Amino acid sequence: MGSNPVLEIIKDRILIIAELSANHNGSLETAIETIRAAKRAGADCIKLQTYTADTMTIDSRKPGFRIEGTIWDGKNLYELYKEAYTPWEWHEVLFKTAEEEGLICFSSPFDKSAVDFLESFDVPAYKIASFEITDVPLIEYVASKGKPVIISTGIASTEDIELALEACKRMGNEDIAVLKCTSSYPAPLEEANLIMVKDLAEKYNVTSGLSDHTIGNTAPVVATCFGARIIEKHFILNHDIGGPDAAFSMDEAEFKNMVEAVREAEKSIGQVDYSLTDKQKSGRDYCRSLYVVESIKKGELISEYNIKSIRPGFGMHPKSYNAVLGKKAAKDMEKGDPLFSSCIE
User: Fold this and answer.
1) Mean pLDDT of the region 290-295
2) Is 134 helix (H, G, I), strand (E, B) or coil?
3) Cα–Cα distance between 236 and 329 in angstroms, integer?
4) 344 forms bridges with which residues in the sheet?
5) Whether 169 and 31 share a structural domain
6) Is 48:98 a contact under the CB 8 Å cutoff?
């Protein structure tokens, strides 16, 4: 890895990231105070998420767009993201607050427009969220900016990880970190498999770490013992404020205890397992795939206007995006239909 603030810390010590996510609960003042609290708790970085409901999915009531099997059961994808997103007009003051506090600030972009927006802040790194690891065109665009790329693997198979790494390297970017992650909210400790932190580093010759959704300090401490160079935890000012991510977030006192524990960590043991549990496989329903976003008539050309890589994941793999552009539709398709190879002449 090259030389920038994120990489300099990783050389010296474990980089500890406080994830703001939706924990502002719609209040800019809460977001600002959360950043200040993260500094007091010992974080090195504050991480945002940069998206809107429209850059994540479409406003559809079809069954695939309804969340099942998580703490957000029954919610519509569009409604959840509309509730949870960080307004883009807040970013300037949040970046400024982080700078005043001596914290590194960067974000997870969820589409190209978010990357372009974040470039205006000269972010020192980008994070690819677990469910976006299949969005190869997005990863390529992020990697093309020449900043370190931190990739979570919550619903990833080995193929997904390899495609993501290849996407970065095609863009000439080898400043890559891969984080072990269990995409359950909160995640049970018995599904953490933290020995994979060590194996990811060895198998793919990358910096490795942990994006953690478990409760408590145990997983970050064990990950540290297996060579993690990055620890990421969701951070909340106060559990009483509630919100979509409150159940698996740490408050200031909890985060401070974790930081102290990580800094003093001793070795522990886990197991290497790249197979996906049934829960992780079902979680892939909410990764990206190709969907019709404007109605298409039979014989009409497939274009950037009428298809898009969005959540959920019931359509074609996003790696097929460029290959299907310019092809003719084999049948009529409505907005919200998944795109399949059988839909294309």
Assistant:
1) 97
2) coil
3) 47
4) 329
5) yes
6) no
Same structural domain for residues 307 and 223?
A: no
pLDDT band at 3 (very low <50, low <70, confident <90, very high): confident
CATH number of domain containing 169:
3.20.20.70
Q: Which residues contact 199 (CB under 8 A, 6 or more apart)?
A: 272
CATH of the domain at 327: 3.90.1210.10
Is the pLDDT reported for residue 224 higher than 90?
A: yes
Task: Give pLDDT, residue 71.
Answer: 64
Pairing of strands 289-292, 307-310: antiparallel
Looking at every residue in the chain, the average pLDDT score rounds to 93
The per-residue pLDDT for 247 is: 85
Q: Are residues 311 and 177 in the same domain?
A: no
**Do 235 and 258 belong to one domain?**
yes
Q: How far is CA 145 from CA 35, 164, 201, in A?
A: 26, 15, 23
Q: pLDDT tens-digit profile of 109-120? A: 999 999 999 999
Q: Which domain holds residue 142?
A: 5-281
Local confidence band at 267 (pLDDT 50, 70, 90 cut-offs): very low
In whole angstroms, give the CA distance from residue 118 to residue 130.
19
The residue to which tokens 């009409």 are assigned:
300
Considering the domain architecture, whether residues 137 and 153 belong to the same structural domain is answered as: yes
Q: Is the pLDDT of residue 198 over 70?
A: yes
Q: Residue 148 corresponds to which tokens in the numbers above?
A: 């370190």
Please tell me whether residues 237 and 318 are part of one structural domain: no
pTM attached to this predicted model:
0.80
Q: Where are the beta strands (DSSP E) in the chain?
A: 15-19, 45-50, 104-109, 126-128, 149-152, 176-181, 207-212, 230-234, 289-292, 307-310
Cβ atoms of residues 307 and 293 within 8 Å: yes
Q: What percent of the chain has pLDDT over 90?
A: 78
CB 149 within 8 A of CB 175: yes
Cβ–Cβ under 8 Å, residues 212 and 187: yes
Per the structure, the count of domains in the chain is 2
CA distances from 211 to 111, 177, 186, 232 (A): 21, 11, 12, 5
